[in-house]
Design brief:
3 domains; SH3 type barrels; six-stranded antiparallel sheet; mainly beta; OB fold (Dihydrolipoamide Acetyltransferase, E2P); five-stranded antiparallel sheet
């Protein structure tokens, strides 16, 4: 049986009847009393982060998962249709399981975590995507001095705020976690 000495960042464990990944941990040995481990856990389904303290050597249940890369094909009703890059098998994943899915365009790669029973644990889209601006107000020369933003519609239909100097038909890099503009992409 695994215990707290097996902790490492990215390890997936079963805790309180849910799956969590360890994002941070610290082994503490105080001068008085027993050693313990402080950890930060992220719920794989809800994304909620919580802190927990464990006694050193306390038993934990490690969950073995397999990471597979799928390609996003299209949206269908309330799910996304993905294709396995190796077997070309298609699967449907509920839209609410994928955070930031409004930034997905066809052909984008998605990592799916599968448990022992081949059930989907979670789906992760790329942190940064390159999207084309399809609609925004025109920018003017000299608009780079201030940090003012304007709304823009991306090729996927998502609306984000971009700097005034970015114009239509330009490629930009977007952070899918926050939905914020990162930079212009040079072509």
């Amino acid at each position: 049986m695994a215990d707290t000495s097996d902790f490492r960042n990215g390890l997936i464990i079963k805790f309180k009847n849910d799956l969590y990944t360890i994002t941070d941990f610290q082994h503490v040995k105080p001068g008085k009393g027993g050693a313990f481990v402080r950890s930060t856990l992220k719920n794989l389904k809800t994304g909620r982060v919580l802190d927990n303290t464990w006694r050193a050597g306390e038993s934990i249940e490690i969950v073995r998962v397999e990471r597979k890369t799928y390609q996003f094909l299209f949206k269908e009703a309330d799910s996304l249709v993905l294709m396995d890059n190796d077997t070309y098998e298609q699967i449907n994943v509920p839209q609410d399981m994928i955070e930031g899915q409004k930034f997905l365009k066809e052909g984008e790669q998605i990592d799916i975590l599968l448990d022992d029973a081949d059930a989907i644990v979670t789906a992760e889209i790329p942190i940064f995507v390159e999207l084309k601006v399809v609609e925004t107000e025109p920018g003017f020369k000299g608009d780079t001095a201030t940090n003012t933003l304007k709304p823009a519609t991306m090729e996927t239909g998502a609306i984000i705020n971009i700097p005034l100097f970015v114009n239509e038909d330009e490629l930009i890099k977007v952070d899918t976690r926050t939905g914020e503009y990162v930079e212009r992409v040079k072509t």
